[in-house]
Amino acid sequence: LTLRPFSMLSGQICNNNLVKIATPHLRDLNQNLGDSVYLGVKNERNVLYLLHYDSTKEVRINGCIGGEYPLNCSAPGKILLSYSDTDEIKNYFNTPVDKRTENTIVDPDIFMEEAERIRKAGYAIDNEEFAKGILCIAVPVFGCDRNVVATIGISTLTLYDTVESLPGEKAEVLKKVAGE
Prior knowledge:
Blueprint (H helix, E strand, L loop, with lengths): L3 H12 L1 H17 L2 E8 L2 E8 L14 E3 L4 H8 L3 H9 L13 H14 L2 E4 L6 E9 L5 E10 L7 H15 L1
Antiparallel strand pairs: 1-2, 1-6, 2-3, 4-5, 5-6
C-alpha cells in the first residue's frame, strides 16, 4: 500500500467545515490543558478522529488523524453510540465486541444504562475501558438540528487524573468548547 489513500483522505479532512471551525478551539484547549484533544465522528462501528492534538505533558498519549476506536469502549465512541436510537445500540451489540479490559462494557443492557447516564450528564467517560492507564472524557457536538454531528474530548493518563476529577475539572470546559 502507498500513502496515496491517506493523502486523499487527509485533504478532504482539512477542507471539512467542521474541522475548520473546530481547529482553533481544540488547539487552544490542548495548549491550556496539555491533554490529548480530539474531534471525532461516527464511522460505522468506530469513532474516526478528524482532528487530534497530542498531549504536551512529559508522559503522554499520542493519537492521529484517521485513528479509529470502538464505539463501546472509548469516551467519544460512547457519546456517538449513546445519542443513537435504541435499535442502533442493540444492533451494535448483536455483533460480538472485544472486551479490551476488565472495565469494557460488552453487555447491551449495561450499555443502555450507561447511555442514559451519558445523555443526562452530557458527557461520557472512558474509565480504562479501552486501555489500562488511560482515561478519557468526551462531549457531544450538536448541529443546528440538535442532532449529534461529532464529539470532542480529551485523553489523559491515570498518572495525572482520576475518574472522579475528570467531570469536575474538564466536563464544563469541553461543553463550552463544543458549544462554540
